[in-house]
Design brief:
Blueprint (H helix, E strand, L loop, with lengths): L5 E6 L8 H13 L4 E6 L11 H20 L3 E6 L20 E3 L5 E6 L4 H15 L5 E4 L6 E3 L2 E3 L4 H11 L5 H9 L6 H28 L4 E5 L3 H6 L4 H9 L5 E3 L10 H19 L6 E2 L2 E3 L10 H9 L8 E5 L14 H15 L11 E2 L1 E5 L24 H8 L4 E5 L10 E4 L9 H9 L2 E5 H9 L3 H5 L1 E7 L8 E3 L4 E2 L2 E2 L2 E3 L7 E6 L5 E3 L2 E3 L5 E4 L2 E3 L3 E4 L15 H14 L4 E2 L5 E7 L3 E7 L8 E4 L8 E8 L2 E8 L1 E2 L4 E4 L8 E6 L2
Parallel strand pairs: 1-2, 1-13, 2-3, 6-9, 9-10, 10-11, 12-13, 15-16, 15-17, 17-18, 18-29
Antiparallel strand pairs: 4-5, 7-8, 14-31, 19-24, 20-23, 20-26, 21-22, 25-28, 26-27, 28-29, 30-33, 31-32, 32-38, 33-37, 34-35, 34-38, 36-37
Helix pairs in contact: 1-11, 3-6, 4-6, 5-6, 6-8, 9-12, 10-11
């Protein structure tokens, strides 16, 4: 039996602007677009009246229920998406005094007018009662919006530091600190402070407690309703101390975890830019929430401000189909505005959705659906607790607490190297694996753990990682490095990096910038007896060699001694020259798969009984053939290729020819913005 990839249309039914014509258009769209579920907004965006009373909420529910009945007759379920928990931002709205709860205060003392304080017991009781009321119409799914967080509540940056919260923090600290002194200590440069750890612990636990209260209230009213949580940026969730597993355990109850990861393109962006963010946000969130293979992911596809002038249909369809790369069981479709205009058939979204549905249903079947528990490739280590250990620099901005642990993930994913985000568990030891570490991740580990990790595995390290190894006095033993000195970018020292003695794409001694869109350079001094291979060197504008850049130590540790630019990240590393140098190393020292001569094509591999490889072309360029490097054990001749051709599903038997270097070629033209699955026929 064919599985079902669930289309859930997020839709605003304005109780004050609803008629038979709008209802007919909605029902027709659901039929033509093969919609499975309509998730009705409540109190959304332009119609938002701040936090509503029970009577105001009931107006929405009374308007939704008759339409839900008509949908049910078509086999379409009803879900609910209340647009606020704490409230996204002020927008000139104010809390009804009758509700009686207090508002959030940020670390600078600014107080919101409509954003609730998450620790206020009055708000907690209010939000539980709201969700009990929502559950009274027995929706299939009931969502908590992604304003269920402490950060990004315009005009506030990070909360909450109200008087009630300050009393909680001071009680745990055993001090009497003002807001200003507490915030300064929380952010101060250098090592983490007790104030920071208290803030993170309180923020973490209070959201878990509220989630449990909401879940218990909903279960009493409608035990079959699934509660889902919308989430946004995993690095910022670290700054509010989010414990993904515990939060979803309390929220989900007896149901599988239900998460809406962010698809980072509300407006159309370059598909190559989307490739980087898809790794850092969408895949990383899925990795944190995954519970074996039982979690359900319904990513959000949003075309803000809702028309083909902000996103082409082809890009919309690409976003839809590439969700198979996280094993999504469905999608939330925010295609039309949130103020009550209803369906606009001129956008041709129904035709688009219908065309993809058969293939997506097939990709949701047990045998073809991606299993997050069995991914293969470079394991990029991330830790939800990194904000507890990061050393800040200036000590003024909460953004200094943001982990930068997904740099390798975005880079390798975009270069077509099989990789996966791997939340770190201190109970797990890795042996004979290929790992990648960036940012200040290693601050989460003891010296013994760092030593084991680097000694027993093939590891990619960045400059910040090496800096920590130097601080721990482990660099000489593990890396053959005696010291290191940082050189700031654009200060007249380093200008370019040159791969001396190598030829890439016909270019001898190829060069890559160290001047533009790049981080700072950690100049390392290696011991005379170190077993080090120099891949590239740093030069100034007068062609003076300054010292090594990329190196391989002991044949299993690859060092890229750069940090992350606050604005540009690792943009300078997204270069075909770097791609080839990375892949040469992987081919020699690992079993990791990667694409060959297919710029911008993403590869996700899964090792279960056989071997599966998902290819997704994150460019608008067609590729004449599929070309890749697999390790010896996966160099099968016969494969099944699962593709969408028009509105039809095509499972095509294809043959792969292999050369002596382990490079396989399949004669299938991979179109721009196309996603396919290649499955070994064993």
């Amino acid at each position: 039996m064919t599985a079902n990839y669930s289309y859930s249309l997020r839709f605003t039914l304005d109780p004050e602007n609803w008629d038979a014509k709008k209802e007919t258009q909605l029902l027709e769209f659901c039929k033509k677009g093969r919609i499975d579920d309509v998730t009705f907004f409540i109190n959304s965006e332009e119609l938002n009246q701040s936090h509503q009373t029970s009577d105001q909420i009931q107006v929405w529910l009374d308007a939704i229920q008759p339409v839900g009945k008509a949908l049910k007759e078509m086999g379409v379920t009803t879900s609910l998406n209340p647009w606020t928990t704490l409230m996204h931002s002020d927008r000139g709205r104010k809390i009804n005094p009758k509700l009686g709860f207090k508002t959030m205060v940020d670390y600078q003392g600014r107080q919101a007018e409509s954003i609730a304080c998450p620790a206020d017991p009055v708000w907690q009781k209010y939000i539980v009662n709201c969700y009990r009321q929502f559950a009274s119409i027995h929706p299939k799914k009931l969502w908590l919006e992604d304003d269920f967080r402490h950060y990004n509540h315009t005009p506030l940056k990070l909360g909450c530091f109200c008087d009630h919260h300050m009393a909680i923090y001071n009680q745990k600290l055993g001090k009497e600190l003002s807001r200003e002194k507490f915030a300064a200590a929380m952010l101060q440069s250098g090592e983490p402070t007790p104030e920071r750890l208290v803030y993170l612990a309180v923020a973490r636990q209070e959201m878990i407690d509220v989630a449990k209260k909401i879940a218990d209230g909903v279960a009493e009213v409608s035990p079959h309703t699934k509660l889902g949580l919308m989430s946004s940026f995993p690095n910022w969730h670290a700054v509010e101390g989010r414990d993904w597993s515990e939060l979803f355990t309390e929220l989900s109850g007896k149901h599988p975890r239900l998460n809406r990861p962010h698809l980072p393109a509300y407006n159309e962006v370059s598909s190559l830019k989307y490739s980087r963010d898809f790794e850092a946000y969408t895949r990383t969130t899925a990795a944190y929430v995954a519970d074996g293979n039982s979690a359900e992911f319904n990513p959000e596809l949003e075309n803000y401000m809702y028309s083909p002038f902000v996103k082409s249909n082809r890009f919309t369809q690409f976003q839809l189909e590439s969700t198979v790369l996280i094993g999504a069981s469905g999608i939330m479709l925010n295609l039309f505005d949130m103020m009550g205009n209803g369906i606009d058939p001129t956008y041709h979204y129904a035709e688009l959705l219908a065309e993809s549905k058969t293939w997506l249903n097939h990709m949701s079947e047990r045998s073809t659906r991606l299993d997050l528990g069995h991914l293969d490739g470079v394991k990029v280590l991330v830790d939800q607790d990194s904000a507890q250990t990061i050393h800040t620099t200036q000590g003024r901005d909460p953004a200094e607490l943001l982990p930068t642990e997904t740099n390798w993930l975005s880079l390798f994913g975009s270069l077509g190297i099989a990789c996966l985000p791997k939340p770190y568990s201190h109970k797990t030891q890795y042996h004979d694996q290929t790992l990648a570490i960036s940012g200040q991740f290693l601050r989460n580990l003891t010296n013994t753990q760092i030593t084991q990790l680097i000694s027993d595995n093939t590891v990619f390290l960045d400059g910040q990682s090496v800096e920590i190894i130097l601080e721990r006095h482990l660099a000489n033993t593990l890396l053959g490095v005696s010291n290191g000195k940082w050189h700031q970018v654009r200060t007249g020292y380093q200008s370019f990096e040159q791969a001396d003695g190598q030829t890439v794409n016909g270019i001898e001694n190829p060069r890559v910038t160290m001047l533009q869109h790049t981080g700072n350079y950690l100049q390392l001094t290696y011991d005379q007896n170190a077993k080090v291979t120099i891949i590239s060197n740093a030069y100034n504008e007068y062609h003076k060699c300054l010292g090594p850049v990329m190196t391989v130590v002991n044949e299993h540790t690859f060092i890229l001694p750069m940090d992350s630019d606050p604005k540009y990240g690792w943009e300078s590393q997204y270069y075909s020259i770097k791609e080839i140098l990375f892949k040469r190393y992987l081919q020699k020292h690992s079993q990791v798969a990667f694409v060959v001569e297919m710029p911008g094509v993403k590869l996700v591999t899964e090792q279960t009984i056989g071997f599966k490889a998902y290819f997704s072309n994150f460019t608008i360029d067609d590729q004449p053939k599929i070309k890749f490097h697999f390790s010896d054990q996966y160099q099968y001749t016969h494969w099944i290729l699962h593709a969408r051709i028009g509105s039809d599903l095509k499972d095509i038997s294809v043959q792969c020819s292999w050369d002596t270097h382990g490079i396989g070629t399949i004669d299938y033209p991979l179109k721009g913005l196309e996603t396919i699955l290649l499955e070994a026929e064993v």
